[in-house]
Design goal:
Helices cover 28% and strands 32% of the residues. By secondary structure, it is an alpha+beta fold. The chain starts with a strand and ends with a strand.
Length: 347
């Protein structure tokens, strides 16, 4: 489950474009006109997504100076925001995070309070100014925490790793520890506490292994991003997720950014359904790197020689993203193309 966590804001200066690839999910919830001077001309707030520009709202001094919005952007989308007019516009909203990541931290802090209250500490026994009624309140608090442990609520480890010896000292109560009134803890309560501590100590190795596995997964993902995978001489995967397979290699001129190319192709969805093709008649012609086709094609055809055949597996971020191209292409679709390069005209 995700929920708003932190503030997001951007000041759009007049007639300037602000472009970025979204790094984490966020929502724009308000657009407010920044008054400067006496201009009463309208200001249009626009967003460009995948080469298409949309008007979000129109603001005008003295008429409509702020507008609530419900615009959500997801990670990986390429967007561009701009204010067309004579005044700046303030956009505000929220970043989103997974609230499940926060629950474990709260549970772990509760467990630390349980251990701190019940393990003996000679230095703390000597402190003055605490009354016996505080011990009774602490006992009731301990019983509530023990109930949570008995119900199987998970405890997350703290982010700071500690030595095994220190963990042993912290988790195990000192022998013969006494309460401030000179009496030992009641046997029934002490037995419950020791049982709860033993159960948690048994779970620590499992939690440590899960944490180590997560760290290893992150390292492997980072390594995959830093360098292309080399599955074979004719197959490679780029950090963006684009998979390029050279089926046949021609000897003609090489396509590069700025070249005008002519191609034949067949486009399929992951289920094998053909959504588009050009196998006869006038071939498709476009300029590489100019945004006339989806980004997966601009990148995937770069370096291809005339007479070559390639298979391109294009992730949604380099194709039609979360919006898709209805009705043929559903949202978040991975596209598969077989492309043959017929000709290249240099710029």
């Amino acid at each position: 489950m995700v929920s708003p966590l932190s503030f997001w804001g951007l000041v759009l200066e007049p007639n300037k474009s602000y472009s970025q690839v979204v790094e984490s999910d966020f929502r724009i919830s308000m657009a407010t006109l920044a008054k400067k001077g006496n201009s009463t001309k309208p200001v249009i707030v626009q967003v460009t997504v995948e080469d298409s520009t949309f008007n979000l709202c129109t603001l005008q001094s003295g008429h409509r100076e702020n507008q609530p919005l419900e615009i959500y952007f997801s990670e990986g989308e390429e967007i561009s925001l701009q204010a067309v007019g004579d005044a700046a516009v303030h956009l505000t909203g929220f970043h989103y995070v997974d609230t499940a990541l926060m629950d474990g931290t709260r549970q772990f802090r509760a467990f630390n309070k349980l251990i701190t209250h019940n393990t003996g500490n000679d230095d703390m026994d000597d402190e003055e100014g605490e009354e016996d009624d505080e011990d009774e309140e602490g006992a009731e608090y301990d019983e509530a925490l023990l109930a949570k442990l008995a119900n199987g609520e998970a405890m997350e480890e703290d982010d700071d790793d500690e030595d095994d010896d220190e963990e042993e000292e912290e988790l195990a109560p000192k022998a013969g520890s006494k309460r401030k009134n000179g009496e030992k803890e009641p046997p029934a309560k002490k037995a419950k506490l020791e049982s709860a501590i033993a159960a948690v100590k048994q779970d620590v190795p499992k939690e440590q292994k899960q944490k180590q596995d997560k760290k290893q997964d992150k390292k492997e993902q980072q390594a995959a991003k830093e360098s292309p995978k080399k599955e074979g001489d004719n197959l490679r995967t780029l950090p963006s997720g684009l998979v390029i397979e050279d089926v046949e290699t021609g000897n003609g001129p090489k396509a590069k950014k700025g070249s005008t190319v002519a191609v034949r192709y067949i486009g399929k969805l992951s289920n094998g359904k053909v959504f588009d093709s050009n196998v006869k008649g006038q071939p498709l012609s476009f300029t590489v790197g100019k945004g006339e086709v989806i980004k997966g094609w601009d990148v995937g055809l770069d370096g291809m020689t005339v007479g070559s055949k390639r298979k391109l597996t294009i992730p949604p971020a380099l194709a039609y993203g979360s919006r898709g191209a209805p009705p043929e292409i559903p949202p978040n679709s991975t596209l598969h193309f077989e492309v043959k390069l017929l000709s290249v005209k240099k710029k």
